[in-house]
């Protein structure tokens, strides 16, 4: 904000804290409706997910067996499907944004690297969901996949082509969203908010890094994992909302040695606590390789060398052997917003006018047109077309599965990380490792809470990060207290 800004310059109907795909999309839909709206965030987006994303905007490539086994997962799948139908018009609104598309469809391959309990079953789940929704796909011979050249021990066994699962250029998408937002009358403020300003049971605005206070009837926390810092300035609310941690990921942009790139996304099913390995074309002779997923209590701005090495090794072994001769143009770091129960945080808190639009984990960019439309309806007092209340921020932990099921899932995914790193073990040793992992994760879950159990990736990470374990215990205790008081 300028030092000479007037009081009117600091007054808005809605302030959106966060300038990633979700925050800008919400700001844009509000501005189109004539709302006086400001979007806040540093231009380089230090804790964002979308700026480092492969930006695959499909629905079915992300389907897993666990997604299909719960009502919550089914809801997320249905939302993603609805969002996918909005993308053509959404891109057209962004100055004929069809040129933002970088891939023609997606190839999902089932290769020899993973575990049948994860890779094979998730591959089958993708096919089942495509069939259920009547969505077009085609089985293809892996040997006919252009550009694919893995090492022989990582060769694909099966593959299918999803013609409607595309990808966009994420940095350019964000630039177009910013341009459209300001053209519609929105205000971009290149600062982060440091505090939610409130009085009694009503929000009044936010305080910026510069000390400037913005007044607003509504404040929306849409800053991804970094939203937690703002939420913590309202501790009585923060205690009863699943805390946010980072699903830190590394991706790279590479200039291929031979100047080629695939026409389509090439990916595996989701596995090893992460989205599947994927290579996305980014123009002539350039590819995006992603992505890792490591739970971190705080957002990260730099990549660990070990994660970069792991990612590049996966790309070379599983997709194209001569990628090692490519020029490494950029290493990117993203922070996916992960709530302590693994589910989105959408809607108004119990502090009037304070809203949340985060916790979307891997789905934020894909869902952005849909969630922006629906949140705009709520903020304007209109009836939304989908029930966002299922993921209201103030809630007891959402736990779709039993403790035993979660522990077993954690063990399997932990073992999958070993196979993806190409470990070599005596044939009988994995059974012993699984046995002791099962005992260890059961003990950790028992120590966290008698009944509540976090999602597998958080359960695994709580063994490493003591602060994460404490955050889980605090949230579970606060939820039990709230239930007791209400009762």
TrEMBL record:
InterPro entries: FAD-dep_OxRdtase, FAD/NAD-bd_sf
UniProt keyword terms in alphabetical order: Oxidoreductase
Superkingdom to which the source organism belongs: Bacteria
Keyword Oxidoreductase listed: yes
One Pfam family this sequence matches: DAO
Record carries keyword Oxidoreductase: yes
Residue ranges of domain FAD dependent oxidoreductase in the record: 13-377
Protein name, per record: Glycine/D-amino acid oxidase-like deaminating enzyme
Species name: Kibdelosporangium banguiense
């Amino acid at each position: 904000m300028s030092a000479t800004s007037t009081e009117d310059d600091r007054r808005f109907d809605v302030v959106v804290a966060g300038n990633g795909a979700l925050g800008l999309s919400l700001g844009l839909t509000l501005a189109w409706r004539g709302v006086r709206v400001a979007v806040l965030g540093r231009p380089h987006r230090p804790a964002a997910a979308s700026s480092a994303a492969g930006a695959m905007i499909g629905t079915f490539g992300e389907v897993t067996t666990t997604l299909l086994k719960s009502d919550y997962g089914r809801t997320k799948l249905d939302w993603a499907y609805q969002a996918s139908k909005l993308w053509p018009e959404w891109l057209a609104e962004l100055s004929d944004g069809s040129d933002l598309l970088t891939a023609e469809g997606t190839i999902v391959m089932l290769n020899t690297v993973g575990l049948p309990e994860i890779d094979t079953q998730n591959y089958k789940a993708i096919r089942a969901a495509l069939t259920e929704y009547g969505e077009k796909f085609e089985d293809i011979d892996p040997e006919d996949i252009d550009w694919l050249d893995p090492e022989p021990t990582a060769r694909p066994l099966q593959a299918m082509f999803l013609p409607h699962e595309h990808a966009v250029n994420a940095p350019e998408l964000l630039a177009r969203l910013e341009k459209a937002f300001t053209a519609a009358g929105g205000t971009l403020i290149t600062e982060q908010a440091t505090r939610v300003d409130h009085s009694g049971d009503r929000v009044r605005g936010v305080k910026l890094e510069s000390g400037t206070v913005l007044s607003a009837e509504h404040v929306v926390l849409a800053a991804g994992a970094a939203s937690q810092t703002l939420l913590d300035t309202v501790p009585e609310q923060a205690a009863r909302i699943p805390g946010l941690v980072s699903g830190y990921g590394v991706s790279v942009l590479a200039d291929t040695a031979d100047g080629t790139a695939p026409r389509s996304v090439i990916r595996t099913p989701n596995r090893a606590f992460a989205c599947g390995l994927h290579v996305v074309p980014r123009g002539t002779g350039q590819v995006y390789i992603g992505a890792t997923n490591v739970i971190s209590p705080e957002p990260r701005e730099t990549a660990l060398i070990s994660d970069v090495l792991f990612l590049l090794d996966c790309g070379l072994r599983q997709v194209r052997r001569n990628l090692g001769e490519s020029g490494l143009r950029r290493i990117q770091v993203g922070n996916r917003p992960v709530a302590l129960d693994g589910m989105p945080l959408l809607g108004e808190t119990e502090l009037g006018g304070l809203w949340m639009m985060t916790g979307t984990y891997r789905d934020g960019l894909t869902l952005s047109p849909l969630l922006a439309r629906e949140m705009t309806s709520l903020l304007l007092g209109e009836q939304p077309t989908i029930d966002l209340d299922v993921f209201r921020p103030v809630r007891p932990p959402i736990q779709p599965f039993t403790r035993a099921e979660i522990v077993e899932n954690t063990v399997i995914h932990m073992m999958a990380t070993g196979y993806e790193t190409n470990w070599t073990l005596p044939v009988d040793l994995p059974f012993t490792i699984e046995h002791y992992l099962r005992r260890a994760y059961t003990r950790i879950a028992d120590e966290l809470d008698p009944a509540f159990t976090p999602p597998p990736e958080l359960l695994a990470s709580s063994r490493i990060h003591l602060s994460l374990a404490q955050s889980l215990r605090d949230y579970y205790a606060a939820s039990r207290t709230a239930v007791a008081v209400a009762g």
